[in-house]
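Lab notes, practical 5.
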Amino acid sequence: MLNIHKKLLLFLVFILTVGTSQAQVPTEASLLWKIEGKSLPTPSYLYGTIHLICPSDFLLSDTLKGCLKQTERLTLEIDMDDPGLMMAMAKSMGMPKGKQLKQLLDSTDYVRLNQYFKDSVGLNIGPFERAKPFMLMSILLNRVLTCQPQSYELSLMGLAKKQKAEVVGLETVEEQMAVFDSIPYTEQAQMLVTLMDSLPQARREFGRMVEVYKRQDLAGLYAMTLESEFDMEKNQAVLLNNRNKRWIPIIEKQVSERPTFIAVGAAHLGGAEGVIALLREAGYRVSPIFGR
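Output from the prediction step:
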């Protein structure tokens, strides 16, 4: 009888925990959120960005700019205002000594990749032999767009500087690169080849993602990210969930010190392990601000 009661209690705890977690998941259509409660003297704000977008789809609304003006700090995923940023990226982009891209791919794929970069990107991959494949992937991703992309992060940073707000990051370049290092280089290299072979499909997928983003549909955007043909679900814990959990104590410290505007990729906001749900679980009121 004791064992039955114990099992029932554990089952109820599980159900209540799951129910509480799901209750924190954001369902409203908004990219801009206000963070209050837990004795915060002033509210802070949370905004979901998209890292690549054409100027015709780019928007920084007056509502968003007004929220930013009420803050004294801009927090991005990494501190893009750090003068040592480029040097840190250069130091972090290489694989360990002895590792080369040609070792990670079969000879046919390597030749095809090199030829594609020459013909379509205007680069010889020779100088990038020791670069982590994700670095080459970031170059190739720019081919997904048929325009010169605009950056939410750089635009927000420009506005923050005008109002003399501090710019900081939630993680260092080294920490961000360590995230990618947890995905084996052979897997990264294969993802690079898959992207090269699937650019038309990637363009269609990205076009749909931009439309969902413009509708401010966080749940739809989160689902699309996981359903991507490019293995996002397989690396969800590494690229999203684990980072979200590490960010929460940093965000808590920052918003307790001064009003802060936090801008991270919108895929980090949705879901039961997204930033909004985790902040709500930590005791904050996180409410949508409609009108973007």
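Observations recorded by the TA: The chain has a mean pLDDT of 85. Residues 99 and 130 are 6 Å apart (CA to CA).
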